[in-house]
Design a protein that fits this description.
The chain is α/β, with parallel strands linked by helices. Helices cover 36% and strands 19% of the residues. The chain has a single domain, classed as Rossmann fold (3-Layer(aba) Sandwich), CATH 3.40.50. The structure holds S-adenosylmethionine.
């Protein structure tokens, strides 16, 4: 059944929000070029886990082939490789992919194949689980992306997303720096609405313990990251602008700035095209 919640065209709404956010500011050709090292470091810590293990436990089986779309530096591909028979990790950013390859080698993971293409692929690899974590916030062609996931999945598709996009947490800091409100991005609830509009029977499960506010330290590394995330050069002047904006918009606790809360992480799942009835049920906890 196709459901259009609140009479809103969620496909258009999702695409408009993603497009407006994507159009913001100049970006290097590899937008992760200056952020991949820190992303790698953070995603290896317990605090940077972001609901990974809990999310994966809900959708995987030991015999599975899993496709991880937008694998980043391996935050999910690495635990996936320990839970599944084989992982295909797609990562188009050279900076992210380089870290991913290093991590796979470092951990001696022989069942992970790293590929550099963007999704959707004309020739889709078949997988039992087709998974994508924190990717679709910026995907304008959302229908092609989701329908290709469905077509590739023998059992289940899953999106791991925050209830609100992580960049929304920085809206006030961005406004204090630039004087303009940043367009907000779509996230888990918009993705759920799109899936139902497409007639896909999706379920949303909140991953417990993931609703932490976004915090940044008052040190150069954190402020540099924040500068990059709000579109300011991460130099001395840029860092000073960001610190000033934090002072005007955020609570400070000791050496950390409490930026904002974008809610917990959610796992959105729906049956793959090759699924039998058991794949259609919401994942059991
Ligand atoms: C925020 S990172 C998330 C990385 C990883 N999934 C995680 O949660 O740690 C988003 C990643 O998606 C990748 N990406 C963006 N668009 C993509 C697409 N169309 N196909 C595959 N990957 C994409 C980016 O290069 C980036 O590495």
């Amino acid at each position: 059944m196709r459901v259009r919640i609140g009479d809103v065209d969620w496909v258009s709404r999702f695409s408009e929000l993603a497009a407006a956010a994507e159009a913001e500011g100049d970006r290097p050709s590899d937008r992760w070029r200056d952020r991949a090292a820190r992303f790698d470091r953070m995603s290896r810590t317990a605090a940077g886990d972001g609901g990974t293990i809990e999310g994966l436990a809900l959708v995987t089986r030991p015999e599975d082939v899993a496709l991880d779309i937008g694998a980043g530096t391996g935050r999910h591909a690495v635990p996936l490789s320990r839970r599944c028979a084989r992982v295909i990790a797609l990562e188009p950013s050279p900076a992210m992919r380089q870290r991913l390859v290093s991590r796979v080698e470092e951990e001696g993971l022989r069942n992970v194949e790293v590929r550099g293409e963007s999704w959707p692929l004309p020739e889709r690899p078949a997988a039992d689980v087709v998974y994508s974590a924190h990717v679709v916030y910026g995907i304008v062609e959302i229908v092609g992306f989701l329908e290709a996931m469905t077509a590739a999945a023998r059992r289940i598709c899953a999106l791991l997303l925050k209830l609100r996009a992580p960049s929304d947490a920085l809206a006030e800091v961005h406004e204090a720096v630039h004087g303009t409100r940043r367009p907000r991005r779509p996230a888990a609830l918009e993705a759920l609405a799109v899936l139902h509009q497409l007639g896909l029977q999706a379920s949303l499960t909140i991953v417990e313990g993931t609703g932490r506010p976004l915090v940044f330290g008052d040190d150069e590394d954190d402020l540099r990251e924040l500068a990059l995330r709000v579109g300011v050069a991460p130099d001395h002047a840029g860092i000073a602008r960001v610190r000033d904006a934090l002072g005007r918009t955020c609570e400070r606790e000791g050496e950390t700035w409490k930026v904002a809360d974008v809610g917990p992480t959610a796992l959105v799942t729906w049956p793959g095209a090759g699924s039998a009835a058991d794949g259609c049920a919401p994942p059991a906890r």
